[in-house]
Amino acid sequence: MATINNSITRLGIMDVADSIIADAVCGANQAHLILGPPGTAKTSIGQYIADSLTRIMGTDYQLVFLDMQTLDPADLAIPMPDPESKTFAYWFNEVFGFTPDQPVVLLIDEYSKPQNPASQNAVHQLFSKDKKTGCRRLLSMMLHPDSVIIGTGNLGTDGVGDMVKSHTRNKVTMHYVRNPYPDEWLPWAFENNINPIVQGWVKQTPLCFASYLDPDFGSLPEDIKSMVYNPDPKNPAREQGCVTARSLEFASNVFHAYFNAQAMGLRYTEQMLLADLQGVIGNQAARSMLVFKNFAMELPSAKQIMAGGAAYPTSIAAHIICSLNACVWITGAGYGLTAPETKLEVKNRIAGWFNYMMGGLAPDAQTMFVHSVKDAAEKAARKQETTVMSKLWELTVTTHEFQKWASVNGFKY
C-alpha cells in the first residue's frame, strides 16, 4: 500500500470546489484533479461548480460527466472516413453533450483507475491547452475556452487501485480532500432532508468522520475505528460498509423507508432495519445508530407540541432529534401536521415551537435549531429561491417568542 503523507494539506470538498470556481472566474482556468477517500462528494460537486459558474459568469455552464470505470474510447466518438480528403473526422456521441459553442464543466470520474487504459489516454489530452487556440481538445473537438476540466479519484493509500502518473500530476492542480467535519456536514444534511435520526447520531458521534489518515487515528476507540473506512488488510471490518458522507445519505434513505412503511402498515421489522443499515454503514455504526433511534423515539409529536403541555424527552439525544424534527414540520408536512398554507401559519408554528423549546429543551438542542434555521434560510436566499425556506429566518426573527428567547440567551441577530 502507498505511504501516507500527513504533511499534505487536505481541504473540505466545498473549499476545493470554491477554489476551482475562483480559478475559473479569474481566468487561470487550470485543469484539476481531486483525490480523496471514498464517499466525500468528489463526484457530486460537479453540479455545484456548474451552477455557481452559471450564476457568476452569466453564461450557461453544462455539466458533462464521464465515468472512467465504464468508458470505452468508442463511447466518446467514432472515426468517419472522408474519401475525398482521404482523412477521417470524429463523430461525437450526442449523449455527452459536447459542444464548442458552450462552456462545460467536464467531470472525469475515477480518472485514476480506468477500466480501459485507452480511455484514460483519450481524455488525458484535456489536461493541456492547445498552443494555438488556448482551448482544450478532446480528440478532434476544441472545447469552449472557458470550459473547466476536473478529474476525480481516490488516494493511492485507499487501496482501491488508483494511480496517477507523474507527468499527469505536472499538468494539473492537485486537490486533496478530507472527510467533512460534523459542523460542515450537518447544515448540508438539514438542507437535503437527511433523516433527523441520522443527523442526531452524527451530532452525538462526531468521530464518525475520522479518517485512517489522521495522525491520531491509532489512539481512537476501537468502535470508532471499526466504523470508518480503513484499508488496512488487518482491519476486521474491511469488507463491511463504513461511515462516509455518502453512506450516511443511504442510511437516511433506509430510515425514511422504515418510518414510511410503519405509517403505511407495511411489514418492516427492526431486525430488517438493522440488516439494511449494516449493509450501508457497517455493523458497528448500524447498531450504534439503532440504539440512538430507540432513545429518540420517546419524542412528542408536532401536534402535541403545538397543542401545548407536551412532555420533554429524558435523553439529550432525544432533545436533539426533537429539535431537528421541528426544522422539518415548521415548513412542511409530517409528525402529525399537514403542510402550512400561509406565512402566518408558519409563524404560528415557530411561536409554538419556541414556547415548547424554552420550557425545558436542552440548551445545545435549542442553539442547534436556531443555527440550522438561520443557515438554511441564508443559503436558500443566496440561491435566489422563492420558497418558504428562503424567508424562514425573516419569519423567525419577527416573532415575539424568538425575540424573547434571543434576549434570554444573549443571541445577536
Question: Would you write up a description of this structure?
Answer:
This protein has 413 residues and is of the alpha/beta class. The chain contains 17 helices and nine strands. The strands form three sheets. A five-stranded parallel β-sheet has the order 2-5-8-1-9, with helices on one face. It has a two-stranded antiparallel ribbon with strand order 3-4. It has a two-stranded antiparallel ribbon with strand order 6-7. The longest helix is centred in the middle third of the chain and has 20 residues. The N and C termini lie far apart (51 Å). The relative contact order is 0.09. The model has no long low-confidence stretch (mean pLDDT 87).
Radius of gyration: 25 Å
Structural class: alpha/beta
Kindly state the percentage of residues in helix: 40-55%
Shape: globular
Order of helices and strands: HEHEHEEEHEEEHEHHHHHHHHHHHH
In what order do the strands lie side by side in the largest sheet?
A: 2-5-8-1-9
How much strand?
5-15%
- Note poorly predicted spans: none
Instruction: State the distance separating the first and last CA atoms.
Output: 51 Å
Number of extended strands = 9
Give a short account of the largest sheet.
Answer: 5 strands, parallel
Count of helical regions: 17
- Overall mean pLDDT stands at 87
